[in-house]
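Give me the fold.
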Amino acid sequence: MPADTRARQRTGTGLGLLLTLVLGAVLLTALPDDDGREGGGCAPRTVAAWTKDDRLTGEFARYGDDATRTDDWTGGDGTHSVRLPDGRVLWLFSDTYLGQVHGPPNPVGESVAWRDTTAPLVRNSAVVMRGGRLESTLPAPLFADPAPNQWRWPVAARVEPRSPGSSEKVVRVLLWVRTAGQSPWIYGVPTATEVATLSLPDLKVESVVKVLDQSLVPDPSQRVLFGTTLVEKDGWTYVYGGDDGQAASRPASSAYVARVPEGRLGEPAAWQYWNGSRWGAAPKPVRGAKVGSAFSVARVDGTYVLFTMAAGAEGLTTVTSYWACSPTGPWHGPTRHFSPSLPSAGVAAYNPQVHPELSGDGRLVLSYDVNWLETTGASASINADVTLYRPRFVTVRLARTR
């Protein structure tokens, strides 16, 4: 077992605890619009109401607790999803526990299910849902390590033509490549953004292409990884990303956005990066935007709505939103906050992600990940209570504001 893997098992899983660090100082301010004009049909929006989605949360608990197999998903974070052409939903996770879940009660007598400390931890996984029921885990890890002491975390994904105009569809998955490092990069140094192509319907990895290499950027806090979320509009895929400024004790991370023509996500030359005033060949921070590295954007009736963790002391417990009339902004907010439920004290919420394929009827399905705040002994805590490292879900309703 690589030394960095052992360390991660001692101190807690990577993406979750990385995000709890960067999301504590989230602040989003105005971004310039493409052309300075608000889009047609756009209106200010805010969260009007939210409710727990016990059905979805319970489905991941049911599947994770199922002891029928020992090579399937029992917990993970970095929750992303994409609907496949045949109606299935592919769920993508970063650091993932496999193995078997026992109990309850757990060894210390609490009425919660638990996982043995020898449970395998892999860098990524994918789980297939059909008809609202999780049915199988693809061989894990789905995306092999690119090199020793490097790993891949899958983030946003979409189904698109194999090439522009093609009738054949494939799944394109954005990947974050990170390299083992020393403090403050204890959860990996940002290295590159890649795009994997999966065949349909069998979901086999056909290729992985590096679209943005950041390994030569001297300051790791200035390296940009794309794919925390994406939005499709008018033949373009808008891909959002961020840097790791917070890991280097900077005030916050910066937001970025790129766009790619439909069918060309896996072509590095097709990517265009917003530089604050126009699309160009190199990513630049979006002016005035300071965000955590994980946020989500959805398009609702002409309005773009961004969900992220709130700034300040509420940042690890509270979700807030912003709205804009363009993929590049300007963003307005923050609007109304809400605090989703957490399984116990000392646990953080992070990585709010909208799942459009499960949304409808004026509601948005939003997931959030949970993890232990303290790094020391976090892995043991996660194993002792499996609910601490599984996604939870809420249903959010938006309303127009003045």
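Residues 3-400 form a domain with the Tachylectin-2; Chain A fold (CATH 2.115.10.20).
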